[in-house]
């Protein structure tokens, strides 16, 4: 095996180990970023399929988050809830799934899925476009025309991530709110459909009703996405530098070996003469 191949395998092992550790953290947001970058009908199909599979978990998570009171278990707990003695309706994930199917049918596990699809697709699009525009902006500012305006290149991805995260959150927040409200409503329906929900919220709460809780979401997403994109760009640059250094080291060993072989051949030639 050549030294270049060994160097590449060493890089692969290092990259796999580090990337495996951060993959779970970045997948929630970068899956949308990469999806928009490499859009085609196949990726659209698998994106929709993944959302179809994951949607029931979203519904169960939201239902469990919203209920209060101490956990109780068993058939007696269900009866006490029905008699309004207990506040908790669900006593765990599996119990929540069975109760939702029993009371609302299998479709109850996919409540809010349509608005969730709009949310994830639009979020990824806005995020990608904003990030690209921020990169172009920083590139034009830092091209050497005015040294006073040149941003620290290390901070650029952090700032880009913070801005694109905040922009995408503000732009798509109504879909997030609709998804949560659909997932939260149980057997007793408040909204019969997406159009009805939009009309009801607008008539009863005004435009501000679509943005309830947005300040907390933006404050959460700014540092999160700043660190996420910053780590993403720094990791890419670090791996490129590591790859170059390993390949240069491998090439230098190949050159040294070839020189030794040539010198040895010449020495043997003179000895035989």
TrEMBL record:
Solcar repeats lie at residues 42-137, 152-238. It is found in: Mitochondrion membrane. It comes from Gigaspora margarita. GO terms for cellular component: mitochondrial membrane. It is a multi-pass membrane protein. Keywords: Membrane, Mitochondrion, Repeat, Transmembrane, Transmembrane helix, Transport. GO terms for biological process: transmembrane transport. It comes from the Eukaryota. Belongs to the mitochondrial carrier (TC 2.A.29) family. This is Mitochondrial carrier.
């Amino acid at each position: 095996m050549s030294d270049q191949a060994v160097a590449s395998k060493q890089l692969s092992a290092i990259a796999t180990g580090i990337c495996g550790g951060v993959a779970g953290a970045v997948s929630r947001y970068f899956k949308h970023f990469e999806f928009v970058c490499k859009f085609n009908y196949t990726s659209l199909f698998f994106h929709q399929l993944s959302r179809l599979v994951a949607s029931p978990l979203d519904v169960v998570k939201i239902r469990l988050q919203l209920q209060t009171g101490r956990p109780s278990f068993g058939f007696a707990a269900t009866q006490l809830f029905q008699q309004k003695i207990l506040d908790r309706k669900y006593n765990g994930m599996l119990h929540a799934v069975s109760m939702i199917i029993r009371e609302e049918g299998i479709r109850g596990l996919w409540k809010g899925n349509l608005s969730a699809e709009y949310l994830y697709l639009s979020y990824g699009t806005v995020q990608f476009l904003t990030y690209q525009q921020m990169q172009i902006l920083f590139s034009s500012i830092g091209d050497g025309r005015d040294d006073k305006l040149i941003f620290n290149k290390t901070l650029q991805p952090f700032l880009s991530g913070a801005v694109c995260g905040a922009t995408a959150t503000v732009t798509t927040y109504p879909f997030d709110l609709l998804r949560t409200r659909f997932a939260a409503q149980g057997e007793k329906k408040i909204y019969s459909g997406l159009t009805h929900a939009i009309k009801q919220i607008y008539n009863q709460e005004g435009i501000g009703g679509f943005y309830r809780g947005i300040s907390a979401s933006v404050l959460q997403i700014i540092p999160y996405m700043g660190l996420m994109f910053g780590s993403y760009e720094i990791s890419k640059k670090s791996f490129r530098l590591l790859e170059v250094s390993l390949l240069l080291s491998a090439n230098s060993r190949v050159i040294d070996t070839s020189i030794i072989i040539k010198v040895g051949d010449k020495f043997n030639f003179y000895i035989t003469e």
